[in-house]
Amino acid sequence: MHTNAAKTPMPHPPEPPPAPAHPLAEGIRGLHHSSISAANQRAVLMIVATTPGITNAEISRRAGLGAQTVSRFLADLENDGLIRRGEVKRGQPGLPATPYFLIYDSVMSLGVSIGWHRCDVVLMDMSGAATAVETIRYEQPAETVFSDVDARWRTLAERFDVARKPRMVVAGVTVPEDLADGLLLPGEHGGRGTDGVARRLSEATGLPFRGYGMARAAAWAEHGGPGSPWKGDFLYLHIDEVIGSAVILGGVAWRGGKGGVHGPQLGRTLSGGRVGEPTRLQDIASIRALRKRVREKRPRADAADAETLFSMPAAEAWLEEAATALAWAFSNTAMVIGMRHAVLGGPVPRQVLARLCEAVRDRMRAIWPCDCDIIGVGVGLAGPAAPAIGASYLPIYEALFEREPSG
Question: Which residues form the signal peptide (predicted)?
C-alpha cells in the first residue's frame, strides 16, 4: 500500500551546518550558479575575499559566469584598488593563471558601541582583524559621547599611511534602544533611537554611520572572529543592563525588523520570578536585575561597575535565579527552532559567565527529555567589545558584498 502522506520529522535538533569562516561572508551560501544576478561583481569580490589566490578560471566556475565577464569585473575591482594580482602561476596544465587577492587595508571600518557605562571604539580592515580597540568609560552616558568618539577617530586616522590611505571608510554603531533617545536632544530631527544616534555620529565625524542591533552585531563578532568555535547555528545572549539576543542561522545573522535593530527579543520572554509569577527574563538575569538586588541591601552601592557588582554577596543569589531562567529560555527556544548551541556575552566578568554557563547546563539536564541532547552553552570569545567589533564587520559587508545593497 502506497501513501502520499509526509513523514513527521523527529524532534531532534539538527547538526549545525558549516559556515564561511571569513567575518564578511554573511549570506555567501546564497551565491549559487542560478542566483547571481545584478550583484555579479559583488559575488566575484566575495569569492576573492573568501578564497585568497583564486584565479579567473576558478572564479568563473564557482560563479557560473563567463571568463570574459569575470575578467572585466576583476579589472574594475583592481582599478578601484580593492584587489591585487599575485605572481602568475606557471608549470600547470593550461594557460598561465593569475591569482587574485583582497587588499585588506583598502577599506577600513569604525565600529562603535555605546553602552550605559562604556563606549567601545574598534578600527577594522577587510581581513576581520582589529587594528585598534579603545574604550571610553563613564558613570552615565552623555551627549558628549559624540565628540569623544570623534576625538578617538581623529587619533586613529593619524595612523593611516599617507601613501596607502584607505579607498573607503565605513562605520557602524550599536546602542541599546532605551538608551539611544536619552543621547539625543528633545525635538531633534532626523530620526530617533539607533538611527538618530548614527546620524549624530555621522555629523560629528564625517563618516557614514549605520545603526545595528547590539546583540546582532555582537553575535556576528562571535561568529566571524578569528579562531571562533561558533561557526554553525547558535543563539546569542548579550547580558548587559538589559538582555539582548540574536540568532545565527545558516551562516546568516537574522536581521529582524527595521534593518536589524529589532531582532529576537528573548530578554522580554516570560520566566518564573522569585515567587513564581511570570516575570521577564531580563528582570531576572540582567545586570540591572542584579543592581536592584544590591540596592535592596546597600542603597548606595548599585552604581558600582560590573566587576564590583559581581563581587558582592547579592551576585550569588542572582546567579542561581538567572541560571534557572536562562535554562528554561534556552530549552524552549531550542525546541522551537532546533538550536544546538547558545553563547553568552556582555560586560559580565568572564569568570562569572563561565560559572553561569555551567549552572545553566546543570539545570537543563533536569529540564530536557532523556532522549534529547541538551543545548550546548558557552562563553563568547569576543569579550565586552563584541558589539563594536560586529558593528565594524557589518558596514563593510553591506557596502561591498551584499547581493542587494541596502543603500
Answer: none
- Higher pLDDT, residue 159 or 147: 147
Q: Is 193 left (phi over 0), alpha (psi -120 to 50) or beta?
A: left
Note the pLDDT of residue 37.
45
Which of these, 25, 31, 405, lies nearest to 210 by C-alpha position?
405
Please measure the distance between the N-terminal and C-terminal CA atoms of the chain and give it in whole angstroms. Answer: 56
Q: Is 154 exposed, middle or buried (0-12, 13-18, 19+ CB in 10 A)?
A: exposed
Contacts for 31 with CB less than 8 Å, ≥ 6 apart: 43, 46, 47, 63, 403
pLDDT in tens, 316-368: 999 999 999 999 888 888 777 777 889 999 999 999 999 999 999 999 888 87
> 118 and 397 in contact (C-beta within 8 Å)?
no
